[in-house]
UniProtKB/TrEMBL annotation:
<feature type="binding site">
    <location>
        <position position="7"/>
    </location>
    <ligand>
        <name>substrate</name>
    </ligand>
</feature>
<feature type="binding site">
    <location>
        <position position="176"/>
    </location>
    <ligand>
        <name>substrate</name>
    </ligand>
</feature>
<dbReference type="InterPro" id="IPR000056">
    <property type="entry name" value="Ribul_P_3_epim-like"/>
</dbReference>
<dbReference type="InterPro" id="IPR011060">
    <property type="entry name" value="RibuloseP-bd_barrel"/>
</dbReference>
<dbReference type="GO" id="GO:0004750">
    <property type="term" value="F:D-ribulose-phosphate 3-epimerase activity"/>
</dbReference>
<dbReference type="GO" id="GO:0006098">
    <property type="term" value="P:pentose-phosphate shunt"/>
</dbReference>
<keyword id="KW-0464">Manganese</keyword>
<feature type="binding site">
    <location>
        <position position="32"/>
    </location>
    <ligand>
        <name>a divalent metal cation</name>
    </ligand>
</feature>
<comment type="function">
    <text>Catalyzes the reversible epimerization of D-ribulose 5-phosphate to D-xylulose 5-phosphate.</text>
</comment>
<keyword id="KW-0413">Isomerase</keyword>
<feature type="binding site">
    <location>
        <begin position="174"/>
        <end position="176"/>
    </location>
    <ligand>
        <name>substrate</name>
    </ligand>
</feature>
<dbReference type="InterPro" id="IPR013785">
    <property type="entry name" value="Aldolase_TIM"/>
</dbReference>
<keyword id="KW-0119">Carbohydrate metabolism</keyword>
<feature type="binding site">
    <location>
        <position position="34"/>
    </location>
    <ligand>
        <name>a divalent metal cation</name>
    </ligand>
</feature>
<feature type="binding site">
    <location>
        <position position="65"/>
    </location>
    <ligand>
        <name>substrate</name>
    </ligand>
</feature>
<feature type="active site" description="Proton donor">
    <location>
        <position position="174"/>
    </location>
</feature>
<dbReference type="GO" id="GO:0005737">
    <property type="term" value="C:cytoplasm"/>
</dbReference>
Length: 216
């Protein structure tokens, strides 16, 4: 049974408290928070004040995905804002190993995200140091994009690496995840699924979360 992490970016920001409460009451495991800077990705999402509001209401762990350049500038801030998982992009961090160690030293679980074009080999040297490997199954920046089919083989490669290195890293998939492809993602080795539009654009978000949670 996969961990389900609804993406708050797809929620209704005029009624954010309502959507957070919906996730609190659902079978979801985490809240997925996308922080974008408009530089690393061609979009700007939300920042510290909004995350602080989310933290004040969320009753589940915050799974924070930084799509920003020089993410190490903000590690301490995100720790204060309650991030349980802090994921940075391999492509955005010049000193990836050092950044991972700093995240862990602050008491958070460290994650590394890979863009669709970045091979699994990019995390070969750090896979034992991270708790989460986030595989982007769309190009980061905008919600509602079409799922990239090559993701399935990428998950299998990641799983092979984790087993080979005797690591306990969780594999998380982000982008175009829905009830239709959840079972195949899990079969390939995914441990956690991020779902945004599939959840919040549906008239029955709680049911979608339940369907994703029970996919196998």
């Amino acid at each position: 049974m996969a961990l389900i992490s609804p993406s708050v970016l797809a929620a209704d920001f005029l009624h954010l408290a309502k959507d957070i409460e919906l996730v609190n009451q659902s079978q979801a495991d985490w809240f997925h928070l996308d922080i974008m800077d408009g530089v690393f990705v061609p979009n700007i999402s939300y920042g510290m004040p909004v995350m602080k509001s989310i933290q004040s209401l969320a009753q589940k762990p915050l799974d924070v995905h930084l799509m920003i350049i020089e993410p190490e500038r903000y590690f301490e801030e995100f720790q204060k804002l309650g991030a349980e998982y802090l994921t940075i992009h391999a492509e955005a961090s010049t000193h990836l190993h050092r950044s991972i160690q700093v995240i862990k030293s602050l008491g958070m679980k460290a994650g590394v995200a890979l863009n669709p074009h970045t091979p699994i080999s990019a995390v070969e040297e750090v896979i034992q140091d991270i708790e989460l490997l986030l595989i982007m199954s769309v190009n980061p920046g905008f919600g509602g994009q079409k799922f990239i089919e090559n993701t399935y083989s990428k998950i299998e490669k990641a799983k092979d690496l984790i087993i080979q290195k005797n690591a306990s890293t969780l594999i998380e998939i982000d982008g175009g995840v829905n009830v239709e492809n959840a079972s195949k993602l899990i079969a390939c080795g995914a441990d956690a699924l991020v779902a945004g539009s599939a959840v919040f654009a549906n008239e029955n978000p709680t049911q979608v979360i339940s369907d994703l949670k029970n996919a196998h």
